[in-house]
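Q: Joint fold for the lines below.
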Amino acid sequence: MLRFEVVHQSKKSRARVGRIYTQHGIIETPNFVPVATNGSLKALTAAQIDALDIDLLFCNTYHLMLHPGAPIVESAGGLHHFMRRSKPIITDSGGFQVFSLAYGGVHQELKSAGTKKHDGGVKKISEEGVIFRSYRDGALITLTPESSVQAQKALGADIIIPLDELPPYHVEKGALKKSLDRTHRWEKRSLDEHLKNRRYQSMYAVIHGGIDPNLRAESCRILSAQPFDGFAIGGSLGKDRTQMITMLEQLMPQMPYEKPNHLLGIADLPSVEAIIPLGIDTFDSSHPTKCARHGLLYTRNGNITIAQGKFKTDLAPIDITCDCYTCVTYSRSYLHHLFKAHELTAYTLATIHNVRFMINLCRAYRQAIMDDAL
Amino acid sequence: MLRFEVVHQSKKSRARVGRIYTQHGIIETPNFVPVATNGSLKALTAAQIDALDIDLLFCNTYHLMLHPGAPIVESAGGLHHFMRRSKPIITDSGGFQVFSLAYGGVHQELKSAGTKKHDGGVKKISEEGVIFRSYRDGALITLTPESSVQAQKALGADIIIPLDELPPYHVEKGALKKSLDRTHRWEKRSLDEHLKNRRYQSMYAVIHGGIDPNLRAESCRILSAQPFDGFAIGGSLGKDRTQMITMLEQLMPQMPYEKPNHLLGIADLPSVEAIIPLGIDTFDSSHPTKCARHGLLYTRNGNITIAQGKFKTDLAPIDITCDCYTCVTYSRSYLHHLFKAHELTAYTLATIHNVRFMINLCRAYRQAIMDDAL
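A: Joint structure:
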């Protein structure tokens, strides 16, 4: 299991530089965690992923459970061997996908002010767990704290996550409290299951409570009293970035200082700028890779939409300061052409760039923290 | 311009091992020429292409003319620099795409026995050239022998091809003869335009005549009397493999022995087995890369359809004897999973394998010829 060390605490903010030591290598923090949902960072090979210096990669248990199935991955030697990644991997519990299919994301909710109900395949939520229909073949699947942890044991990620319920953003306080209490019971059961056969794996608790400061504080208090190896912040983070930052400003000082903190599902650039000074160590999101596949490329001077006509004749790289394969090899003009021609290579090259941009950005943040400049 | 040497003539057949020396390197023959239509071998980066040892790569002038446009590629330093390929490239004239859009391929034709007429954007064919509408923006574009060669000069491939007309398979003999005569006049004009500013480029004539042995012989005689650097076999190759092979058996002994011979648009495995003993030096086709993207993978023991359920737990590589990145890195089980999950990386890994399989197959053919075993 992991060991965490704070290498340097900034004198200017709660930002810190740290190192998470795992069976498969060291995770330098703060750091961005790209999402390889199906055990594949979309459009990249293992060699291309290795070249990006990604310290931690996020895979989704929900998807891998439905295909090819955790036992298949286990008999292939585990997720590291199956997808040929030698460095650390984190998996989630599967709960997020089950419940976000049921309730929709906060954006869909906001459109209907929470009045629209759809079950998205969720058949029953009980104390035991959740029963849902596979989106692949309609099979009924029961996900419990124990079965989620067993699946994550089979996958074999370095860091695993207990089953939680993701209540919708528009939830009454009473229902949110009931959900929170059950989530805490589920997390306890997940931890117990994990501790039966810990191996090299570590488990991060997921702190819930929506945007209610008292519930967040309660969740933090209850979960940090248990022997989790790290703490992730999950559940609804609010309807916009301002609500999320307000919540984190209140919550972060209560988080266990000596354990790594992970923010689930956030990696847009303005949020990253806000959360690192609050002491977030790692954060995952498919946002940078999704942007890449839509031709939205990151640069030191802001994002560019590479399909715009002005890039047709632009012989400069995406970002002159970037050391990624795409930038040292190709021009904006060629990338523009690939996107306009809908060439698959466009998605590969853009993904390489955006991920490497995030990795380099985090390295720069670490240096700024070391220099007490952040 | 190129120099061709026959390294070894098989004692058993017309098959020969040769070397084509060009400005950008040596092409060992017989060899497979993958098709990178838009200046991108679909789903691969330049580094991945380099690792495959592809001696000659085919790009389509029609597509590059429409986007980004030959002048854009020229100002980017030419196609080699634009797409970051240091080794030889061949481009076609653009005529094939214009006419195949107009007449459809032989398979579409066979369905309607040639009775269905559609212009596919072709507005006018005259002695001057062909006027067609861009499939991208509807702009009217005139393609003449001179403009095609000028575009190919701007692209800067090592080997270029004169403008020809591609008559449909179901054409009356009189119309085929008229088309052939005009094609010969177009090829002569193309050669004249090329010789005005030869640079390092070489031009292959395209021998036409459909499946009429007399017209093929006439085309071969007329074109081989002119200073072309090599000879491609184009036009309709018949309605099936048997017709094509019969035509090639008659034609090949008439082809200039001391010049490289290229077969346009054919690279399925049974055809390859038949054409190499007939003396074909190079052959291009998008067939192996298309098969790859559909999950049809080549092995020494026949093709496999990787999405089939039996591969879900198969931990062997696609082909145990293959040295490609995909085979030395991943299992069939992982590839099966990527195809079932519609992951983009599937197309990359499958393309790497099928192309490398073809490259290795041709290397084995060369060895067999050296050994007089073929």
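Q: Anything notable?
A: The longest strand of chain A covers residues 3-9. Residues 3-285 of chain A form a domain with the TIM Barrel fold (CATH 3.20.20.105).
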